[in-house]
């Protein structure tokens, strides 16, 4: 009886009350200029944090990333939010690529605004509007789960 109780508690504690984007994904991205294959690994332990491309982002809070992988920018500011805070099925995001100057002023070099959602448990869609140097490029990526 005690084992059954602990089994139920552990199963219930792992259930998320939001869409779980976790997994390894493979798919195709398209924009006005070209199409290319893409892979993506997402780790999501709960509804308040998601890790994509090895970078952990807080959902509902601004996340600042400073890393060695940034070549053209000194920092990236992530703003991830649930589109509908009660259903928690889609994530909308804004990603600012920022250069900080020595005099402590900053300017945004590029901005990505997009949406991440699943049509079912095997299909993931990423829609991004990329603003850079006054121009806009729309990109859509369609992924299929490749786990196991």
From TrEMBL:
Taxonomy, superkingdom: Bacteria
Endpoints of the signal sequence: 1-15
Keywords: Signal
Protein name from the UniProt record: Lipoprotein
Organism: Halobacteriovorax marinus
């Amino acid at each position: 009886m005690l084992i059954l109780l602990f089994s139920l508690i552990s199963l219930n504690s792992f259930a998320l009350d939001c869409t779980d984007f976790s997994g390894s994904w493979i798919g195709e991205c398209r924009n006005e200029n070209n199409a290319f294959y893409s892979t993506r690994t997402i780790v999501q332990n709960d509804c308040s944090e998601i890790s994509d491309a090895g970078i952990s982002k807080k959902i509902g809070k601004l996340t600042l990333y400073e890393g060695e992988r940034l070549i053209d920018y000194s920092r990236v500011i992530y703003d991830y939010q649930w589109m509908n805070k009660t259903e928690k099925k889609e994530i909308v995001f804004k990603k600012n690529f920022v250069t900080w100057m020595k005099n402590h002023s900053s300017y945004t070099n590029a901005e990505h605004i997009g949406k991440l959602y699943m049509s079912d448990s095997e299909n993931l869609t990423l829609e991004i509007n990329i603003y850079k140097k006054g121009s806009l490029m729309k990109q859509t990526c369609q992924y299929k789960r490749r786990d196991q």
